[in-house]
Protein backbone atom coordinates (compact mmCIF):
# COMPACT_ATOMS: atom_id res chain seq x y z
CA UNK A 1 0.00 0.00 0.00
CA UNK A 2 1.57 3.22 -1.13
CA UNK A 3 2.39 5.86 1.43
CA UNK A 4 1.89 3.63 4.45
CA UNK A 5 5.25 2.53 5.76
CA UNK A 6 6.75 5.98 5.38
CA UNK A 7 6.16 7.43 8.87
CA UNK A 8 7.09 4.13 10.47
CA UNK A 9 10.40 3.47 8.82
CA UNK A 10 12.65 6.43 9.11
CA UNK A 11 16.11 6.85 7.61
CA UNK A 12 17.38 6.03 4.14
CA UNK A 13 19.17 2.87 5.16
CA UNK A 14 22.74 1.90 4.39
CA UNK A 15 21.97 1.09 0.76
CA UNK A 16 22.04 4.79 -0.16
CA UNK A 17 25.68 5.24 0.88
CA UNK A 18 27.72 3.56 -1.90
CA UNK A 19 25.92 5.35 -4.71
CA UNK A 20 26.47 8.70 -3.06
CA UNK A 21 30.23 8.27 -2.65
CA UNK A 22 30.43 7.01 -6.22
CA UNK A 23 28.78 10.22 -7.33
CA UNK A 24 31.29 12.28 -5.38
CA UNK A 25 34.24 10.47 -6.98
CA UNK A 26 32.72 11.04 -10.41
CA UNK A 27 32.20 14.74 -9.73
CA UNK A 28 35.81 15.17 -8.62
CA UNK A 29 37.02 13.39 -11.76
CA UNK A 30 34.98 15.62 -14.02
CA UNK A 31 36.33 18.68 -12.21
CA UNK A 32 39.96 17.63 -12.70
CA UNK A 33 39.34 16.91 -16.38
CA UNK A 34 37.76 20.31 -16.96
CA UNK A 35 40.70 21.96 -15.19
CA UNK A 36 43.16 20.31 -17.58
CA UNK A 37 41.17 21.40 -20.62
CA UNK A 38 41.02 25.03 -19.47
CA UNK A 39 44.72 25.05 -18.57
CA UNK A 40 45.50 24.07 -22.18
CA UNK A 41 43.12 26.57 -23.76
CA UNK A 42 43.79 29.57 -21.51
CA UNK A 43 47.16 29.30 -19.78
CA UNK A 44 46.74 32.90 -18.61
CA UNK A 45 43.56 32.08 -16.72
CA UNK A 46 40.16 33.75 -16.89
CA UNK A 47 40.89 37.15 -15.47
CA UNK A 48 42.59 39.89 -17.30
CA UNK A 49 45.28 41.75 -15.39
CA UNK A 50 43.48 44.62 -13.75
CA UNK A 51 44.71 46.71 -10.82
CA UNK A 52 43.31 45.46 -7.54
CA UNK A 53 41.75 48.82 -6.75
CA UNK A 54 39.36 48.68 -9.67
CA UNK A 55 38.65 44.96 -9.36
CA UNK A 56 37.52 45.06 -5.78
CA UNK A 57 38.43 41.89 -3.99
CA UNK A 58 39.76 40.05 -7.01
CA UNK A 59 43.49 39.47 -6.97
CA UNK A 60 44.88 39.56 -10.53
CA UNK A 61 45.54 35.94 -11.46
CA UNK A 62 48.30 36.60 -13.94
CA UNK A 63 49.63 39.81 -12.46
CA UNK A 64 53.16 38.49 -12.41
CA UNK A 65 53.32 38.03 -16.16
CA UNK A 66 51.59 41.22 -17.23
CA UNK A 67 52.56 43.81 -14.64
CA UNK A 68 56.22 44.73 -14.25
CA UNK A 69 55.48 46.68 -11.09
CA UNK A 70 54.16 43.68 -9.34
CA UNK A 71 57.36 42.97 -7.48
CA UNK A 72 57.61 46.44 -5.98
CA UNK A 73 57.22 46.70 -2.19
CA UNK A 74 54.28 49.03 -2.72
CA UNK A 75 52.43 46.41 -4.71
CA UNK A 76 53.18 43.71 -2.18
CA UNK A 77 51.98 45.88 0.68
CA UNK A 78 48.76 46.59 -1.16
CA UNK A 79 48.27 42.91 -1.72
CA UNK A 80 48.90 42.22 1.97
CA UNK A 81 46.41 44.78 3.16
CA UNK A 82 43.93 43.53 0.57
CA UNK A 83 44.35 40.04 1.96
CA UNK A 84 43.94 41.23 5.55
CA UNK A 85 40.75 43.10 4.80
CA UNK A 86 39.45 40.09 2.91
CA UNK A 87 39.96 37.71 5.80
CA UNK A 88 38.32 40.18 8.13
CA UNK A 89 35.32 40.49 5.85
CA UNK A 90 35.22 36.75 5.65
CA UNK A 91 35.13 36.46 9.43
CA UNK A 92 32.38 39.03 9.63
CA UNK A 93 30.40 37.20 7.00
CA UNK A 94 30.79 33.96 8.90
CA UNK A 95 29.61 35.62 12.07
CA UNK A 96 26.61 37.07 10.27
CA UNK A 97 25.68 33.64 8.92
CA UNK A 98 25.98 32.23 12.43
CA UNK A 99 23.75 34.96 13.83
CA UNK A 100 21.13 34.42 11.17
CA UNK A 101 21.19 30.69 11.78
CA UNK A 102 20.73 31.20 15.49
CA UNK A 103 17.86 33.63 14.94
CA UNK A 104 16.23 31.14 12.58
CA UNK A 105 16.59 28.41 15.13
CA UNK A 106 15.12 30.56 17.89
CA UNK A 107 12.26 31.55 15.64
CA UNK A 108 11.58 27.89 14.93
CA UNK A 109 11.59 27.08 18.64
CA UNK A 110 9.36 30.02 19.38
CA UNK A 111 6.95 28.92 16.72
CA UNK A 112 6.99 25.43 18.16
CA UNK A 113 6.25 26.70 21.65
CA UNK A 114 3.51 28.94 20.33
CA UNK A 115 1.92 26.03 18.52
CA UNK A 116 2.00 23.93 21.64
CA UNK A 117 0.36 26.71 23.59
CA UNK A 118 -2.42 26.97 21.06
CA UNK A 119 -2.85 23.25 21.12
CA UNK A 120 -3.18 23.16 24.87
CA UNK A 121 -5.00 26.35 25.64
CA UNK A 122 -6.66 27.52 22.45
CA UNK A 123 -6.56 31.08 23.75
CA UNK A 124 -5.28 33.13 26.63
CA UNK A 125 -7.68 33.46 29.53
CA UNK A 126 -7.63 35.31 32.79
CA UNK A 127 -7.99 32.99 35.75
CA UNK A 128 -11.49 33.05 37.23
CA UNK A 129 -12.33 33.50 40.92
CA UNK A 130 -11.35 31.04 43.65
CA UNK A 131 -12.83 27.59 43.21
CA UNK A 132 -13.96 28.13 39.65
CA UNK A 133 -10.84 27.23 37.65
CA UNK A 134 -10.38 23.89 36.02
CA UNK A 135 -7.35 22.90 33.97
CA UNK A 136 -7.49 21.06 30.72
CA UNK A 137 -7.39 17.28 30.82
CA UNK A 138 -9.38 16.57 27.70
CA UNK A 139 -6.97 17.20 24.87
CA UNK A 140 -8.28 17.80 21.35
CA UNK A 141 -8.47 14.82 19.00
CA UNK A 142 -6.02 14.70 16.12
CA UNK A 143 -7.28 15.32 12.60
CA UNK A 144 -7.86 11.87 11.09
CA UNK A 145 -5.26 10.92 8.48
CA UNK A 146 -6.63 8.18 6.23
CA UNK A 147 -3.50 8.08 4.09
CA UNK A 148 -1.80 6.28 6.97
CA UNK A 149 -3.72 3.12 6.16
CA UNK A 150 -6.66 3.42 3.75
CA UNK A 151 -7.64 -0.24 4.06
CA UNK A 152 -7.87 -0.05 7.85
CA UNK A 153 -9.67 3.29 7.60
CA UNK A 154 -12.38 1.66 5.49
CA UNK A 155 -12.72 -1.28 7.86
CA UNK A 156 -12.98 0.94 10.92
CA UNK A 157 -15.70 3.00 9.28
CA UNK A 158 -17.82 -0.15 9.18
CA UNK A 159 -16.97 -1.51 12.61
CA UNK A 160 -16.67 1.48 14.92
CA UNK A 161 -19.54 3.16 16.72
CA UNK A 162 -19.14 6.87 17.43
CA UNK A 163 -15.49 6.49 16.35
CA UNK A 164 -14.78 3.95 19.10
CA UNK A 165 -14.08 0.26 19.19
CA UNK A 166 -12.51 -2.56 21.17
CA UNK A 167 -9.28 -3.89 19.67
CA UNK A 168 -7.49 -7.13 20.54
CA UNK A 169 -4.34 -8.61 19.03
CA UNK A 170 -4.29 -12.39 18.84
CA UNK A 171 -2.30 -15.26 17.41
CA UNK A 172 -3.23 -18.94 17.45
CA UNK A 173 -1.54 -19.58 20.82
CA UNK A 174 -4.55 -17.95 22.50
CA UNK A 175 -7.16 -19.43 20.19
CA UNK A 176 -9.42 -20.95 22.87
CA UNK A 177 -9.38 -17.84 25.01
CA UNK A 178 -10.09 -15.71 21.98
CA UNK A 179 -13.19 -17.78 21.26
CA UNK A 180 -14.41 -17.32 24.81
CA UNK A 181 -13.58 -13.62 24.50
CA UNK A 182 -15.66 -12.89 21.42
CA UNK A 183 -18.54 -15.15 22.42
CA UNK A 184 -18.99 -13.09 25.58
CA UNK A 185 -18.64 -9.83 23.67
CA UNK A 186 -21.42 -10.95 21.34
CA UNK A 187 -23.61 -12.03 24.27
CA UNK A 188 -23.15 -8.59 25.85
CA UNK A 189 -24.53 -7.04 22.67
CA UNK A 190 -21.31 -5.28 21.69
CA UNK A 191 -20.66 -4.94 17.96
CA UNK A 192 -17.83 -2.41 17.75
CA UNK A 193 -14.88 -4.69 18.27
CA UNK A 194 -12.07 -5.94 16.09
CA UNK A 195 -9.50 -8.70 16.23
CA UNK A 196 -6.09 -7.94 14.79
CA UNK A 197 -5.12 -11.39 13.54
CA UNK A 198 -1.42 -12.09 13.72
CA UNK A 199 -1.63 -15.36 11.80
CA UNK A 200 -3.80 -17.23 9.27
CA UNK A 201 -5.43 -19.50 11.82
CA UNK A 202 -6.85 -16.61 13.82
CA UNK A 203 -8.02 -14.88 10.66
CA UNK A 204 -9.85 -18.05 9.60
CA UNK A 205 -11.37 -18.53 13.05
CA UNK A 206 -12.74 -14.99 13.07
CA UNK A 207 -14.19 -15.34 9.60
CA UNK A 208 -15.87 -18.60 10.58
CA UNK A 209 -17.57 -16.92 13.52
CA UNK A 210 -18.34 -13.67 11.75
CA UNK A 211 -15.99 -11.76 14.00
CA UNK A 212 -14.65 -8.49 12.58
CA UNK A 213 -11.04 -9.19 11.78
CA UNK A 214 -8.13 -7.22 10.43
CA UNK A 215 -5.19 -9.09 9.00
CA UNK A 216 -2.16 -6.98 8.46
CA UNK A 217 -0.19 -7.32 5.29
CA UNK A 218 2.72 -9.32 6.67
CA UNK A 219 5.28 -7.95 4.22
CA UNK A 220 4.96 -4.31 4.99
CA UNK A 221 6.45 -1.95 7.52
CA UNK A 222 6.29 -2.79 11.16
CA UNK A 223 5.12 -6.36 10.71
CA UNK A 224 8.29 -7.37 8.93
CA UNK A 225 10.19 -5.80 11.82
CA UNK A 226 8.17 -7.90 14.20
CA UNK A 227 8.66 -11.06 12.18
CA UNK A 228 12.37 -10.61 11.63
CA UNK A 229 13.02 -9.18 15.07
CA UNK A 230 12.98 -11.02 18.36
CA UNK A 231 10.41 -11.12 21.10
CA UNK A 232 10.96 -7.53 22.11
CA UNK A 233 10.07 -6.30 18.66
CA UNK A 234 6.81 -8.23 18.84
CA UNK A 235 5.88 -6.83 22.24
CA UNK A 236 6.41 -3.35 20.80
CA UNK A 237 4.16 -4.24 17.87
CA UNK A 238 0.95 -3.71 19.84
CA UNK A 239 1.81 -0.09 20.49
CA UNK A 240 2.86 0.55 16.92
CA UNK A 241 -0.27 -0.99 15.44
CA UNK A 242 -2.38 0.99 17.88
CA UNK A 243 -0.76 4.18 16.64
CA UNK A 244 -2.39 3.77 13.24
CA UNK A 245 -5.82 3.44 14.82
CA UNK A 246 -5.29 6.69 16.69
CA UNK A 247 -3.94 8.43 13.60
CA UNK A 248 -7.15 7.47 11.85
CA UNK A 249 -8.97 9.33 14.61
CA UNK A 250 -10.46 6.48 16.66
CA UNK A 251 -10.71 6.05 20.40
CA UNK A 252 -9.52 2.53 21.15
CA UNK A 253 -10.36 0.25 24.02
CA UNK A 254 -7.38 -2.04 23.88
CA UNK A 255 -8.19 -5.47 25.25
CA UNK A 256 -6.28 -8.62 26.10
CA UNK A 257 -8.20 -11.80 25.36
CA UNK A 258 -8.26 -13.11 28.94
CA UNK A 259 -11.15 -10.76 29.65
CA UNK A 260 -14.81 -11.58 30.19
CA UNK A 261 -17.29 -8.97 28.94
CA UNK A 262 -20.49 -8.74 30.97
CA UNK A 263 -21.77 -5.28 29.98
CA UNK A 264 -20.91 -2.80 27.28
CA UNK A 265 -17.79 -1.03 28.60
CA UNK A 266 -18.47 2.03 26.42
CA UNK A 267 -21.43 2.82 28.70
CA UNK A 268 -19.00 3.31 31.58
CA UNK A 269 -16.20 5.45 30.17
CA UNK A 270 -15.54 9.06 31.11
CA UNK A 271 -13.62 9.96 27.95
CA UNK A 272 -12.04 12.97 29.63
CA UNK A 273 -8.43 11.78 29.64
CA UNK A 274 -5.83 10.68 27.17
CA UNK A 275 -5.59 7.31 28.89
CA UNK A 276 -8.31 5.70 30.98
CA UNK A 277 -7.04 2.41 32.29
CA UNK A 278 -7.99 -0.46 34.52
CA UNK A 279 -5.83 -0.88 37.57
CA UNK A 280 -3.87 -3.77 39.01
CA UNK A 281 -4.83 -2.41 42.43
CA UNK A 282 -7.03 -4.50 44.72
CA UNK A 283 -8.81 -1.81 46.75
CA UNK A 284 -9.48 1.92 46.62
CA UNK A 285 -6.19 2.78 48.19
CA UNK A 286 -3.92 0.77 45.95
CA UNK A 287 -5.87 1.57 42.80
CA UNK A 288 -6.44 5.28 43.25
CA UNK A 289 -3.29 6.28 45.08
CA UNK A 290 -2.15 6.89 48.64
CA UNK A 291 0.57 8.33 50.81
CA UNK A 292 2.98 5.57 51.74
CA UNK A 293 5.04 6.76 54.70
CA UNK A 294 8.63 5.64 54.75
CA UNK A 295 10.05 5.54 58.25
CA UNK A 296 13.73 6.15 58.98
CA UNK A 297 14.13 6.40 62.80
CA UNK A 298 17.77 7.62 62.81
CA UNK A 299 16.52 10.84 61.19
CA UNK A 300 14.71 11.65 64.42
CA UNK A 301 12.47 14.67 63.96
CA UNK A 302 12.31 14.01 60.22
CA UNK A 303 12.03 10.23 60.42
CA UNK A 304 8.91 10.10 58.22
CA UNK A 305 9.26 10.56 54.50
CA UNK A 306 6.06 10.62 52.51
CA UNK A 307 5.86 8.82 49.20
CA UNK A 308 3.18 8.70 46.53
CA UNK A 309 2.09 5.25 45.53
CA UNK A 310 -0.30 3.71 43.10
CA UNK A 311 -0.62 0.17 41.77
CA UNK A 312 0.26 0.04 38.10
CA UNK A 313 -2.18 0.52 35.27
CA UNK A 314 -2.93 -2.64 33.38
CA UNK A 315 -1.57 -2.33 29.87
CA UNK A 316 -3.90 -5.14 28.80
CA UNK A 317 -7.06 -3.07 29.14
CA UNK A 318 -7.15 0.67 28.60
CA UNK A 319 -9.08 3.23 26.64
CA UNK A 320 -6.90 5.62 24.69
CA UNK A 321 -8.16 8.75 22.99
CA UNK A 322 -6.74 9.88 19.63
CA UNK A 323 -4.65 12.81 20.88
CA UNK A 324 -1.05 13.94 20.52
CA UNK A 325 -0.08 12.93 24.10
CA UNK A 326 -1.62 9.49 23.51
CA UNK A 327 0.34 8.98 20.31
CA UNK A 328 3.48 10.23 21.99
CA UNK A 329 2.92 7.68 24.74
CA UNK A 330 2.62 4.84 22.23
CA UNK A 331 5.76 6.02 20.44
CA UNK A 332 7.74 6.31 23.63
CA UNK A 333 6.72 2.86 24.82
CA UNK A 334 7.39 1.23 21.44
CA UNK A 335 10.74 2.98 21.19
CA UNK A 336 11.85 1.83 24.64
CA UNK A 337 10.74 -1.74 24.00
CA UNK A 338 12.90 -1.71 20.88
CA UNK A 339 15.92 -0.33 22.69
CA UNK A 340 15.54 -2.31 25.92
CA UNK A 341 14.68 -5.83 24.81
CA UNK A 342 14.39 -7.24 28.32
CA UNK A 343 11.93 -4.69 29.63
CA UNK A 344 8.33 -5.57 30.44
CA UNK A 345 5.86 -3.64 28.35
CA UNK A 346 3.51 -2.95 31.27
CA UNK A 347 6.32 -1.48 33.39
CA UNK A 348 7.45 0.71 30.51
CA UNK A 349 3.88 1.81 29.84
CA UNK A 350 3.51 2.93 33.45
CA UNK A 351 6.89 4.62 33.70
CA UNK A 352 6.27 6.67 30.59
CA UNK A 353 2.82 7.58 31.85
CA UNK A 354 3.79 8.56 35.40
CA UNK A 355 7.40 9.65 35.81
CA UNK A 356 7.65 13.46 35.82
CA UNK A 357 10.20 15.53 33.98
CA UNK A 358 13.50 15.82 35.77
CA UNK A 359 17.07 16.78 34.88
CA UNK A 360 17.93 15.09 31.62
CA UNK A 361 14.44 13.76 31.09
CA UNK A 362 11.27 15.18 29.60
CA UNK A 363 8.30 13.38 31.03
CA UNK A 364 5.13 12.77 29.06
CA UNK A 365 2.23 15.00 29.94
CA UNK A 366 -0.73 12.81 29.23
CA UNK A 367 -3.88 12.99 31.33
CA UNK A 368 -4.89 9.77 33.10
CA UNK A 369 -7.91 8.28 34.73
CA UNK A 370 -8.08 5.09 36.76
CA UNK A 371 -11.15 3.03 35.97
CA UNK A 372 -13.55 1.95 38.71
CA UNK A 373 -12.02 -1.25 40.10
CA UNK A 374 -15.42 -2.89 40.62
CA UNK A 375 -16.68 -2.11 37.13
CA UNK A 376 -13.42 -2.94 35.42
CA UNK A 377 -12.38 -5.69 37.75
CA UNK A 378 -9.16 -7.65 37.91
CA UNK A 379 -9.26 -11.26 39.05
CA UNK A 380 -7.55 -10.50 42.36
CA UNK A 381 -10.42 -8.20 43.35
CA UNK A 382 -12.93 -10.84 42.33
CA UNK A 383 -11.35 -13.88 43.93
CA UNK A 384 -9.88 -12.28 47.01
CA UNK A 385 -12.69 -9.91 47.91
CA UNK A 386 -15.84 -9.67 45.82
CA UNK A 387 -16.91 -13.32 45.71
CA UNK A 388 -16.68 -13.55 49.53
CA UNK A 389 -18.36 -10.32 50.53
CA UNK A 390 -22.15 -10.11 50.65
CA UNK A 391 -22.19 -6.41 49.98
CA UNK A 392 -21.02 -7.13 46.42
CA UNK A 393 -23.88 -9.59 45.80
CA UNK A 394 -25.73 -7.31 43.43
CA UNK A 395 -22.67 -5.90 41.76
CA UNK A 396 -22.21 -6.70 38.11
CA UNK A 397 -18.91 -5.64 36.59
CA UNK A 398 -18.62 -4.50 32.99
CA UNK A 399 -15.59 -6.71 32.51
CA UNK A 400 -13.42 -9.07 34.52
CA UNK A 401 -9.79 -9.45 33.55
CA UNK A 402 -8.22 -12.76 34.56
CA UNK A 403 -4.81 -11.13 34.83
CA UNK A 404 -3.81 -12.44 38.25
CA UNK A 405 -4.28 -16.13 37.51
CA UNK A 406 -2.59 -18.58 35.14
CA UNK A 407 -5.62 -20.92 34.82
CA UNK A 408 -7.32 -18.33 32.67
CA UNK A 409 -9.80 -20.28 30.60
CA UNK A 410 -11.49 -22.22 33.43
CA UNK A 411 -11.75 -19.03 35.46
CA UNK A 412 -13.22 -17.15 32.51
CA UNK A 413 -15.86 -19.83 32.10
CA UNK A 414 -16.61 -19.83 35.82
CA UNK A 415 -17.05 -16.06 35.77
CA UNK A 416 -19.63 -16.40 32.99
CA UNK A 417 -21.40 -19.09 35.04
CA UNK A 418 -21.40 -16.82 38.08
CA UNK A 419 -22.49 -13.55 36.53
CA UNK A 420 -24.43 -14.57 33.43
CA UNK A 421 -26.03 -17.85 34.46
CA UNK A 422 -26.43 -16.87 38.11
CA UNK A 423 -24.66 -19.91 39.49
CA UNK A 424 -23.48 -18.54 42.85
CA UNK A 425 -21.25 -21.55 43.46
CA UNK A 426 -19.34 -21.28 40.22
CA UNK A 427 -16.33 -19.52 41.74
CA UNK A 428 -16.12 -21.58 44.94
CA UNK A 429 -13.58 -24.14 43.86
CA UNK A 430 -10.88 -21.71 42.87
CA UNK A 431 -8.16 -20.62 45.29
CA UNK A 432 -7.60 -16.88 45.86
CA UNK A 433 -4.21 -17.05 44.17
CA UNK A 434 -2.65 -19.73 42.04
CA UNK A 435 -1.82 -23.14 43.51
C1 LIG B 1 -14.10 3.24 47.25
O1 LIG B 1 -14.29 4.29 46.33
C2 LIG B 1 -15.62 4.39 45.88
C3 LIG B 1 -15.63 5.43 44.77
O2 LIG B 1 -14.87 6.53 45.12
C4 LIG B 1 -16.54 4.74 47.02
O3 LIG B 1 -17.87 4.84 46.59
C5 LIG B 1 -16.43 3.65 48.08
O4 LIG B 1 -17.16 3.98 49.21
C6 LIG B 1 -14.96 3.44 48.46
N1 LIG B 1 -14.86 2.27 49.31
C7 LIG B 1 -14.18 2.27 50.45
C8 LIG B 1 -14.16 0.98 51.19
O5 LIG B 1 -13.63 3.25 50.88
UniProtKB/TrEMBL annotation:
InterPro entries noted in UniProt: Nucl-diP-sugar_transferase (IPR005069), Nucleotide-diphossugar_trans (IPR029044), RRA1/2/3 (IPR044290)
One Gene Ontology molecular-function label: glycosyltransferase activity
KW Transmembrane helix (keyword) present: yes
Domain of life: Eukaryota
Coiled coil stretches, renumbered: 76-117
UniProt enzyme class: transferase
UniProt main location, coarse: Golgi
Subcellular location: Golgi apparatus membrane
Name recorded for this polypeptide: Glycosyltransferase
Organism ancestry: Eukaryota, Viridiplantae, Streptophyta, Embryophyta, Tracheophyta
Amino acid sequence: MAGRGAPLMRGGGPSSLPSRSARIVMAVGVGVLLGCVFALLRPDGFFSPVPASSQGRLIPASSKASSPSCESPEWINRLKSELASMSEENAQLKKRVRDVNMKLQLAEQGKDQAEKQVLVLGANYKAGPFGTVKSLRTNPSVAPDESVNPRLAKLLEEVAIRKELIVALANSHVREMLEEWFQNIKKAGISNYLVVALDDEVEELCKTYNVPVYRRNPDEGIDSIARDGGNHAVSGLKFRILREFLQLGYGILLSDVDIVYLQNPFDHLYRDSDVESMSDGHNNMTAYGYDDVFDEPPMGWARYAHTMRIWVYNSGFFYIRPTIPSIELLDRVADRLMRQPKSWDQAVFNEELFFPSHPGYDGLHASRRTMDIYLFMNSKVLFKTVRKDDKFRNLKPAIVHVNYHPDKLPRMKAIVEYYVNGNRDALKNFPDGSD
